[in-house]
Design brief:
This protein is of the alpha/beta class and 557 residues long. It contains 21 helices and 17 strands. The relative contact order is 0.10. Bound molecules: phosphoenolpyruvate (PEP) and magnesium ion.
Length: 557
């Protein structure tokens, strides 16, 4: 066995045989004496074909992956028609280059510009490469690996996968993929999650040591790629695909109900959440609705989106989080200020009460109107750290309600809640809980702020762990504050989706756990076996422990 590690993007494992992706797009030296007019024509033909192909891929992705995800192809069409690229290509052709070399030239500096940026903007470079390579394939006739037609049981290995590559993969044939480059929030990763494909990205150059035909396990949860796996790993990889789906809400063995909900960012993920037995949505990350487009969705579009989410869960609860922009989630057209410490700067509710107040009001109008329709809508605010922020947000809700009333529109006040993601919110949990219906603990941010360890910095990932005693004690304090104030309390950080922690979380008193849909069946399976009194004993021991290692030992036992 040989194990290499990267970033796991789906908590699923897959087992299969390696197929390396090749796209054969090497261009030789440009020939002499070309006819610029002919090359212009060739480029224009390729551009038109590329646009038509993108339109049909957008349609295909809408059906297979989801409406919002498919919009990445809309963005590709915009890139394709961007005058800046056309001008770059035209200049290169005028200087005597054939169309394919001119395309490579025309795209090189915009790609380099995006590569120099941070976070999601850097990932736009992948989109540009995707568009460039599409044009190059059309111009050179290079075919490469036929992604839509891979043999059953393929583990695809690639330098990087573009969104169009990933959208072509058939989950019935492809058992998973791993890439040399790429990050957790790249489109390839998002598509992989929507398609339920085991995937590990950003493994690095060592991935090239694994050759075609090798038997390989991809563990998207641990972020591991294991060549020639032993029997135990093969069994585990095979098992994650067939856990029992429980479509109804579950209770512990002694009858305590724990709601198990899904986290999602787009409507494309609704079907997967339902298929995996989600009781509702515990975290709708609405900022995803604002990505990969040129302007924010208006009130009507948002209203339709929230309604669609509600109609998918008529008997469950849908918790929508208001915009959480900033930090690692920039939105190009909102021109966020540069910040040395984006995680400590303007993000979440801070922007909604500041520069993005109009967007906030529009979103609340859409939400209040959607709340009047079928289903149960709840709305929560991200990154609150003071009571003043919550009160200001609640005031905006009231203003929006009275505007809707005055306009004679039908609306309803949803349940309102606060995300507990900052130490400030933990210390003020009593005061916050007394003003709302529920609290939802976001352990991804809570761990980063309690432990002073950035969630996206590999070097401090050992510290960014919710099993450190201070984080666990913060969770316990939050649960107690909520229950003392008749508020329910859920958890929607990644911690909630770890089946090995389900007993601990039930013992800590959480009423709801919300996670990415893939882990729902396993978490529900754990809940039905739990005796609350035993779980409470485990939790109380963990709360007394002084170190993360001690807590891990208690959980293992
Ligand atoms: C969290 O911080 O735990 C959370 C759920 O929010 P996000 O990951 O979107 O910041
Ligand atoms: Mg958060």
């Amino acid at each position: 066995m040989r194990t290499v590690t990267g970033t796991g993007v789906t908590p699923l494992s897959g087992l299969g045989r390696v197929v390396w992706y090749t796209d054969e797009l090497e261009l030789g030296d440009p020939p002499e004496g070309i006819d610029p007019n002919l090359e212009r024509e060739r480029f224009e033909d390729a551009r038109e074909t590329a646009e038509a192909d993108l339109e049909s891929e957008r349609e295909r992705a809408r059906e297979r992956v989801g409406k919002e995800e498919a919009e990445v192809f809309g963005a590709h069409i915009q890139f394709l028609n961007d005058p800046q690229f056309a001008e770059g290509v035209e200049n290169a052709i005028s200087e005597g280059l054939p169309a394919e070399h001119a395309v490579r030239e025309g795209f090189s500096s915009p790609i380099a510009q995006f590569e120099g940026m941070e976070g999601r903007m850097a990932e736009r470079a992948d989109d540009l490469r995707d568009v460039r390579d599409r044009l190059l394939r059309l111009l050179t006739g290079a075919t490469g690996t036929e992604l839509a037609d891979l043999p059953e049981g393929t583990i695809l290995l690639a330098e990087r996968l573009t969104p169009s590559d990933t959208a072509k993969l058939d989950p019935d044939r492809v058992a998973g993929f791993a890439t040399v480059l790429g990050g957790r929030t790249s489109h390839a990763a998002i598509f992989a999650r929507s398609l339920g494909l085991p995937a590990v990205v950003g493994v690095g150059e060592v991935l090239h040591d694994i050759s075609d035909g090798t038997e390989l396990a991809v563990d998207g949860e641990a972020g591991e790629v294991i060549a020639d796996p032993d029997e135990e790993i093969r069994k585990r990889a095979a098992a994650t695909r067939d856990v029992e789906i429980r479509a109804e809400p579950v209770t512990t063995a002694d009858g305590r109900g724990v709601e198990v909900a899904a986290n999602l960012g787009t409507l494309g993920e609704l079907a997967g959440a339902r298929e995996r037995g989600a009781d509702g949505i515990g975290l709708f990350r609405t900022e995803f609705l604002f990505l990969d487009r040129e302007a924010p969705p208006d009130e009507a579009e948002q209203y339709e989106t929230y309604r669609e989410a509600l109609s998918a869960f008529p008997d469950g609860q849908v918790v929508v989080r208001t915009l959480d922009i900033g930090g690692d989630k920039p939105i190009p057209y909102l021109s966020l200020p540069e910040s040395e410490n984006p995680f400590l700067g303007e993000r979440g509710i801070r922007r909604s009460l500041g520069d993005d107040s109009e967007l906030f009001e529009t979103q609340l109008r859409a939400l209040l109107c959607a709340a009047a329709d079928e289903g149960t809508l709840s709305v929560m605010f991200p990154l609150v750290s003071t009571v003043e922020e919550l009160e200001a947000a609640l005031e905006v809700v009231e203003e929006v309600a009275s505007d809707l009333e005055a306009e004679g529109l039908s609306y309803e006040l949803p349940e309102l809640g606060v995300m507990i993601e900052t130490p400030g919110a933990v210390f003020m949990a009593t005061e916050l809980a007394s003003r709302v219906d529920f609290l939802s603990i976001g352990t991804n941010d809570l761990a980063q702020y309690v432990m002073a360890a950035a969630r996206d910095d590999e070097r401090v990932s050992g510290l960014h762990d919710p099993l450190h005693p201070p984080v666990l004690r913060a969770i316990s304090r939050t649960v107690a504050a909520a229950h003392a104030n008749d508020a329910w309390v859920g958890m929607c950080g990644e911690m909630a989706g770890d089946p090995d922690l389900t007993e601990l979380l039930v013992g800590l008193g959480l009423d709801e756990l919300s996670m990415s849909a893939v882990t729902i069946p396993e978490v529900k399976g754990r809940i039905v076996d739990i005796e609350t009194s035993e779980a409470e004993r485990t939790a109380s021991q963990a709360l007394d422990a002084a170190t993360k290692d001690d807590i891990n030992e208690i959980i293992d036992q």
